[in-house]
Amino acid sequence: MTDTSVPAAPGPTDRNIPRGKRGALRWWVLAFLFAFLAFMLAPIFLALNNAIKTATDYATNGPLALPQSFTVEGLLGFWSYVDFTSKIWNSLLLSAAVALFGVILSLLNAYAIGVGRIRGGRATLVILLLGIMIPQESLVYPLYYLAKSSGLYDSLWAPIIIFTVLQSAFGTYLLSAVMTTFPHEILEAARVDGANRWQILWYVVTPILRPTLAVLATFFFIWTWNEFLIPLVLLVSNANQTVSVAMGALSGQYVSQPTITAAAALLGITPTIIFFLIFQRTLTKGVVVGAVK
């Protein structure tokens, strides 16, 4: 019997594109990526360029010109002006605590919703999503009142608790979506072996989700580091302020020092860049593992 089926038309794959056009397309894509990279690095370059200038050099040649002389007076001036060492420590403590507690709270909530299948789980996720969409400006007054009434005003514990709850809303939504598709065969095998719910969570679910949890902790750390409004309202003393609040201290009616402002911007973004470079492999691994799953 002869085969009378009609062969399928070739799809738009790379093999159907001429080699010359493929090479030109790759060069265009590479040029676009380089342009995008230059656009993203331009603010960092401007901050570095103006942070090492003298005030006279900045006033004479402007912000876009390369420095005619090298100085670290702006960096040292900002560091001593705001006591930047204590600000870095406060930001590190705040961001690390929120990353740790936020991941733990998100994991427990998502385990109850995604694996435990508690009643009202979907309604809880909807409420959490609504909480994510509420602007922080509308939450400042009630959070300020709660901090004052609970005795946590001007204490790092106030923003730690607040950001842990706020960040865990997104974390719960993300992890619950992952746990909903978690293989039930693995969970049933653990139950057959006599594992209880806590043992299933810590010895079965958590090791598999470890890359995703690492990505979530990295996001929580960077997001908390960049927070400005709530720390500005709740942390009024100079000893408890964070890096973002210290950078805002240079903005005022009678403060106009462009080189010190550029130094503040450079010192403010440097820790997050270092943190991102350190955990870059963790982020890539977590995204790839999540895509494979």
Describe it for me?
The structure is a single chain. The chain is an all-alpha fold and 293 residues long. Helix 5 packs across helix 7, helix 7 runs antiparallel to helix 10 and helix 10 packs across helix 14 (280-292). 73% of the residues lie in helices and 0% in strands. The chain has helices spanning 19-51, 55-61, 73-82, 84-115, 121-133, 140-150, 157-180, 184-192, 197-208, 210-225, 229-234, 243-248, 258-278, 280-292. It has two domains: 18-61; 83-252 and 271-292, MetI-like fold (Orthogonal Bundle).
Write a short abstract of this structure.
The chain has 293 residues and is an all-alpha fold. It is built from 14 helices and no strands.
Features:
mainly alpha; 293 residues; 2 domains; MetI-like fold; globular; 73% helix
Binned strand content: under 5%
Find the structural class using helix and strand composition. mainly alpha
How many whole angstroms does the radius of gyration measure?
26 Å
Query: What profile does the largest beta sheet have?
Result: none
Helix content: over 70%
Please name the fourth-level CATH homologous superfamily of the largest domain: MetI-like
- The number of strands is 0
Average pLDDT: 82
What is the CATH topology of the largest domain? MetI-like fold
Q: Unreliable segments (pLDDT under 50, ≥5 consecutive)?
A: none
Per-chain topology:
Blueprint: H1 19-51, H2 55-61, H3 73-82, H4 84-115, H5 121-133, H6 140-150, H7 157-180, H8 184-192, H9 197-208, H10 210-225, H11 229-234, H12 243-248, H13 258-278, H14 280-292
Helix pairs in contact: 1-13, 3-13, 4-7, 4-10, 5-7, 7-10, 10-14
